[in-house]
From TrEMBL:
<keyword id="KW-0408">Iron</keyword>
<dbReference type="InterPro" id="IPR004294">
    <property type="entry name" value="Carotenoid_Oase"/>
</dbReference>
<dbReference type="GO" id="GO:0046872">
    <property type="term" value="F:metal ion binding"/>
</dbReference>
<comment type="similarity">
    <text>Belongs to the carotenoid oxygenase family.</text>
</comment>
<feature type="binding site">
    <location>
        <position position="512"/>
    </location>
    <ligand>
        <name>Fe cation</name>
    </ligand>
</feature>
<dbReference type="GO" id="GO:0010436">
    <property type="term" value="F:carotenoid dioxygenase activity"/>
</dbReference>
<feature type="binding site">
    <location>
        <position position="220"/>
    </location>
    <ligand>
        <name>Fe cation</name>
    </ligand>
</feature>
<dbReference type="Pfam" id="PF03055">
    <property type="entry name" value="RPE65"/>
</dbReference>
<keyword id="KW-0560">Oxidoreductase</keyword>
<feature type="binding site">
    <location>
        <position position="268"/>
    </location>
    <ligand>
        <name>Fe cation</name>
    </ligand>
</feature>
<protein>
    <submittedName>
        <fullName>Carotenoid oxygenase family protein</fullName>
    </submittedName>
</protein>
<dbReference type="GO" id="GO:0016121">
    <property type="term" value="P:carotene catabolic process"/>
</dbReference>
<feature type="binding site">
    <location>
        <position position="331"/>
    </location>
    <ligand>
        <name>Fe cation</name>
    </ligand>
</feature>
<keyword id="KW-0479">Metal-binding</keyword>
């Protein structure tokens, strides 16, 4: 290590850290990490019976810091290291194990014995000099980057790709595709996971097609039922646009193309029908050139909002953009073609949630975010006219359909919802079932201090009717600080639970999961 590196390390130890205005809710309660990896070969069934026709594994992903963050005040829920929980269901019994996704970032921190890197709100503010050096930056390079930042000039593409390795936590979703089990986070390639041991095998980039410097890939690929064709994209951080990919079921590249957009935006998810891909370019504007600000993702409705539509399998088809009122969408439920229109079922927010719009508080409480409402949009591709139907007024998230009906017209959908009364800082305390044919929305209230995550639909059989199956999720009991695996009859949310299984340790609030049948 040279003189420049020694000097930077010495200065880093004296660097003041900014303070938050109040405690960070993302490090409290069931948002707090569970640091222990464990194996539980047999879990206790508290109520009901685990169906013997339910055979497979529920994988779910949650974020949590392996080590205390360099600046806990600026820690964001999205910054946690990926933790996979696997519930194996076989013969009426349930086992459980959990493992960290061992990314390069986590491996470097485990080697150091402490956190090295800041997150999406404080990458430059809180990443230690030791962390930058571990990524291969020299002291001279770091000094040059600081000088360039003062002049408004960002890093080179190669340097930016190195920087992105520091924020690759692989913590958002886990999917079975391309013959592999893959953990995903937007902005980076996937990580391959052993489906039995949960060991991290390493990065999987579809033969070099998915690169961090080109937006990586989002955590929400769409899998075509039957063909298992994979549709995905990655959005660019430095300028407006995205790279759209289509992969065969074995991971071979069918299509990869760049699509320009007016400004760089956080595009968390997208929709796919049987003929088209639909992109939500909304005014959650990225400011990667201002990495020292805790608000690098900013809500700027004056930039406008639009939906981009393109023929999904045509590498040369033009993208048509349709202006819409400013809003934000984290997650669509599904989409389908209706003549020369596309129908989009989405959870829509009036503005970007989970990020502070004005800088007055670093960590607004969960209940202070604007509610997400389930909305159906119908976009006429000839006239550009968009009609909207609000399907219910209960705040909701994590919308799902029967995976056999992805990309095509569906009748049923399910959501996690927040209905009164509730307490504490939980996310959702109910599970809802939507009948799009009758318009009926029914909720199962889990109780005043019980909270849920995304509930996955599992068909009862491969040929069962659309709504016939199970809902599987994890729930957290705040008054007990305990978690259960909950299995419900998807056709009747009012019925007694099919089964309630007690987890040996708390399962933190997380994002997304997948069900892999034993036959796979």
């Amino acid at each position: 290590m040279g003189l420049a590196e020694d000097l930077l390390l010495a200065l880093d130890k004296k660097r003041p850290r900014p303070r938050a205005f109040r405690p960070n809710p993302y490090l409290e309660g069931n948002f707090a990490p569970v640091g222990r990896e464990s194996d539980a070969p047999s879990l206790e069934v508290l109520r009901g019976e685990v169906p013997r026709d339910l055979r497979g594994t529920l994988y779910r992903m949650s974020p949590g810091p392996r080590f205390e963050p360099p600046n806990p005040d600026l820690y964001h829920w999205f910054d946690g290291d990926g933790m996979i929980d696997a519930f194996v269901i076989e013969g009426g019994r349930v086992s459980h194990k959990n493992r960290w996704v061992r990314t390069e970032k986590l491996a470097l921190e485990e080697r150091a014995g402490h956190a090295l890197f800041g997150g999406i709100r404080d990458l430059a503010l809180s990443t230690t000099i030791e962390g930058w050096l571990a990524l291969g930056f020299s002291g001279t390079e770091l000094i040059t980057l600081q000088a360039q930042a003062l002049l408004g000039k960002g890093p080179s593409e190669e340097q930016f790709e190195r920087i992105l390795r520091a924020v690759d936590r692989s913590n958002t979703s886990i999917q079975r595709m391309a013959g592999r089990l893959l953990s995903l986070v937007e902005g980076s390639p996937a990580h391959e996971i052993d489906p039995v041991t949960l060991a991290t095998k390493g990065r999987f980039d579809f033969g070099g097609t998915v690169r961090s410097g080109k937006g990586g890939m989002v955590a929400h690929p769409k899998i075509e039922p039957g063909t298992e064709t994979i549709y995905t994209f990655g959005y660019w951080g430095g300028r407006g646009g995205l790279t759209y990919h289509v992969f065969e079921k074995d991971g071979a590249v069918r299509l990869s193309r760049d699509i320009e957009a007016p400004f760089p935006a956080m595009m968390h998810d997208f929709s796919v029908t049987e003929t088209r891909a639909v992109f939500y370019h909304l005014p959650a504007v990225l400011h990667m050139d201002d990495m020292k600000s805790p608000n690098s993702v900013r809500w700027q409705p004056s930039r406008g909002a639009r939906i981009g539509v393109v023929l999904r399998d045509d590498p040369a088809a033009p993208v048509r953009w349709y202006e819409i009122p400013p809003c934000y969408v984290f997650h669509p439920m599904n989409a389908f073609d209706d003549g020369n229109a596309v129908v989009l079922d989405i959870v829509r927010y009036s503005r970007l949630p989970l990020f502070d719009p004005g800088g007055e508080t670093m960590n607004p409480h969960i209940e202070e975010y604007p509610p997400g409402l389930l909305v159906r949009l119908r976009l006429d591709l000839d006239t550009g006219r968009i009609s909207e139907t609000i399907l219910d007024d209960a705040p909701c998230e994590f919308p799902v359909v029967n995976p056999r009906f992805a990309t095509r017209r569906h009748r049923y959908g399910w959501v996690a919802a927040r209905i009164a009364p509730t307490c504490g800082r939980g996310i959702m305390n109910a599970i809802g079932r939507v009948d799009f044919e009758t318009g009926e929305v029914r909720y199962r209230n889990l109780g005043r201090s019980t909270y849920t995550n995304e509930a996955l639909f599992v068909p009862r059989t491969e040929t069962a009717p659309e709504g016939d199956g199970y809902l599987i999720t994890t729930v957290y009991h705040a008054d007990e600080a305990a978690s259960d695996l909950l299995i419900l009859d998807a056709t009747n949310l009012d019925a007694e639970p099919v089964a309630v299984v007690r987890a040996r340790q708390r399962v933190p609030f997380g994002f997304h999961g997948t069900w892999v049948p034993a036959s796979d």
